[in-house]
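Q: Sequence in, structure out?
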Amino acid sequence: MSLDSASQPLVEMSNIEKHFGGIRAVNGVSLDLYPGEVVGVLGHNGAGKSCLMRILSGAMIANEGTIRVNGDLAEIQNPHDARDLGIETIYQTLALADHLNAPANLFLGRELKTGLGNLDDRKMMAETQRVLRKLNPNFKNLDDPVAKLSGGQRQVIAIARAIYFNVKILIMDEPTAALGPSETAMVADLIKGLRADGIGILLVSHDMHDVFELCDRVVVMNKGRNVGSHRIEDVTKDDVLSLIIKGELPEDWVPRGRDKLQ
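A: Exactly. Output:
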């Protein structure tokens, strides 16, 4: 979806500040995300990107700044607030319970109950089959503990858990880390499918190939600041590396997309 066709951002983070004593982990950062858009959030360890994402996910509270979701001012004090707003996070660790099967992980903490108040295992299995079939028609082994599943299958379960609960904004932290080529390609296809469904995705990644294949825009943080937000077609990998390392673009930089138009 082009930004021109989406007049209102899903998320607007404005002048966000997060201090730890005298350290400004996030220093006046603004960021927006539109429906059906994938925005890469990049930066060295300690640049502030993970801290910024934790603020949006409710795992951390900003010292200053505002967050709007669908144009409305949002008070995000904890992860439950974020989920109520349609914000879900898939961490690099996936936060799956290894000893539980796919349905138990999908509904972990939000289990379906029967009219008598008992766990509705049959409905949870049926719903898990439905949502996993949408993501990966070949997914099997739903009864196995997720510890026995491949990295790609585990990532599918984490994504399924997010989209089942009507996610509108998805934060993905290194979604292809430690995956092989075929599983990485599968997760990339899942991200493209979510984008086509109008979900906005904030993709935290160190993998430049993933960023340039999947993202519409890139936001780079350096020393707690947003040092650049650019359409992916306007920058090269070297441009992005310059922002990550130096906090600025090369002196002779011009938007690459404009070069193609001339």
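DSSP finds nine helices and ten strands in the chain.
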